[in-house]
């Protein structure tokens, strides 16, 4: 498919089915738990937005935002948005807004494959360590 056809195929709403890290020894790890949830959106104007969280996120005991801010589960939530480009089997997210401040202004490249109503994104290793595993996010089409 052409880049334009791939871009068009990506556009829409996607719900997170699974997020796993594949270790070199074949083991799987689930950084947001086995029941992670989230959404990914791409539109025809070239914008994307992703947000996902772990199922074991701890709910704050208070509705007061000042109390909640002290107990945020940063390691159980990730969100970012910005423009995107497609180049062959790769998609580049140009991050403009992110829950991880260090991602703002960076590009996040993913290898993607669309298989029926599933979108599979493969991330590069999520840490600078040579032993860091790639991430695999499977998304299902919504609507």
Overview features:
mainly beta; 2 helices; 143 residues; 9 strands; single chain; Lipocalin; eight-stranded antiparallel barrel; 48% strand
CATH fold group: Lipocalin
SSE order: HEEEEHEEEEE
Strand arrangement within the widest β-sheet reads 1-3-4-5-6-7-8-9
Q: Main beta sheet, described?
A: 8 strands, antiparallel, barrel
Under the CATH scheme, the architecture is Beta Barrel
Determine the mean pLDDT.
88
Distance between the termini: 23 Å
Question: How would you explain this protein's 3D organization?
Answer:
The protein has helices spanning 3-10, 65-70, and strands spanning 12-22, 28-29, 37-42, 47-53, 77-87, 90-98, 107-115, 118-122, 135-142. With 143 residues, it is mainly β. It has a single domain (3-142), classed as Lipocalin (Beta Barrel). It has an eight-stranded antiparallel beta barrel. The radius of gyration is 16 Å and the shape is globular.
